[in-house]
Amino acid sequence: MTDRLPMILAIDDTPANLLTIGKALGSAFDLQVATSGLTGLALAMESTPDLILLDVMMPDMDGYETCRCLLANPVTRDIPVIFITAQNSPDDETQGLEAGVVDFISKPVNPSVLRARVRTHLTMKRMADQLRSMALIDGLTGIANRRCLDEALASEWRACQRACLPLALAMIDIDHFKRLNDTYGHPVGDTCLVTVASALKACLGRSHDLIARYGGEEFLCLLPGTELAGALSKAEELRQSVQDLGIPNEGASAAPVVTLSIGMAVVIPSAAMTPRQLVDSADGQLYEAKRTGRNRICCIDLHQAG
Q1: Domain for residue 174, yes or no?
Q2: H or E stretch at 120
Q3: How far is CA 81 from CA 29, 64, 121, in A?
Q4: 151 and 23: one domain?
Q5: What does the pLDDT profile of the chain (306 residues) look like in tens digits?
Q6: CA-to-CA distance for 210 and 60, rounded, in angstroms?
Q7: Is 22 exposed, middle or buried (0-12, 13-18, 19+ CB in 10 A)?
């Protein structure tokens, strides 16, 4: 549980209205303000507030258009938006709901009503965030699952393509995992998966790097903005961290402990390729690592190869 105050972004072109909102909310919230729709969109992208209070009637970009832009952006689409407006006819409410708002507060603002509505929607957002998080977590290991990986890969692919940055992906397989299950039993195998996942996750130092369980004893590591040399260095860190755990796996060909085979692929994303091709290339390198002895890393730089 975090001690961070809930962040509220208030967007209104009238400073007196922003002052009223600030007084009503008091010190229980971290209030950010913007005096135009465009400025508000930029702030929402930068700080990802927990909730947005949005005026309807503003010059240049009104509340309806601002809300539609928020909803269309993957970064801001899950932030609840409350309209603060003097327009409260059924048609106005219908238009607001179609634009994506979750509630309406009439002007002049009643401070008690504002605080109550804000708290209600913050509670609802926390619950939705928890459910969303649970849907993206692997039930056994507690790390990201395949669905989370697919979403992150699609997002990072677009971001790296726009910025002309490399994207590295490592496919990781626990060597002779079936032998471990057969020798020590499935409960030990499950414990091994949890321990390996924890060790892999501990190797990641950047918030946008990702380790996900891909299925069975396979994991994927996503490293945005990472050249081949850096990706290989990280892959070696992952491989060594698991070997250093010393989990017994007697009879395995590579070592008497649990080890990893890793296939690495790096590319500068382009419209001529798809994320699936990056995954398939890493999978091909993983096959090569296993074919040539296991407990090793094989890699390909698709940008140079192409």
Answers
A1: yes
A2: helix 111-135
A3: 16, 11, 9
A4: no
A5: 356 899 999 999 999 999 999 999 999 999 999 999 999 999 999 889 999 999 999 988 999 999 999 998 888 999 999 999 887 777 877 888 888 899 999 888 999 999 999 999 999 999 988 888 788 999 999 999 999 999 999 999 999 999 999 999 999 999 999 999 999 999 999 999 999 999 999 999 898 999 999 999 999 999 999 999 999 999 999 999 999 999 999 878 888 999 999 999 999 999 999 999 999 999 999 999 999 999 999 999 997 655
A6: 40
A7: middle
Rounded to 5 degrees, what are φ and ψ at 180? -60, -45
| Cα→Cα distances 298→102, 135, 245, 262, Å | 50, 32, 22, 6
Query: For residues 102 and 121, is the Cβ–Cβ distance under 8 A?
Result: yes
Same domain, 121 and 163: no
Domain holding 217, by residue range, is 146-305
Q: What is the largest CA-CA distance in the chain?
A: 76
> β-strands 260-267, 167-174: how paired?
antiparallel
User: Do both 164 and 115 map to the same domain?
Assistant: no
Cα 106 to Cα 279: distance, rounded to the nearest angstrom: 51
How far lies 111's CA from each of 20, 118, 121, 139, in Å?
8, 11, 16, 43
Please indicate, yes or no, whether the overall pTM of this predicted structure exceeds 0.70.
no
CB 225 within 8 A of CB 160: yes
- Could you tell me if 98 and 218 lie in one domain? no
Please tell me the total count of domains within the chain.
2
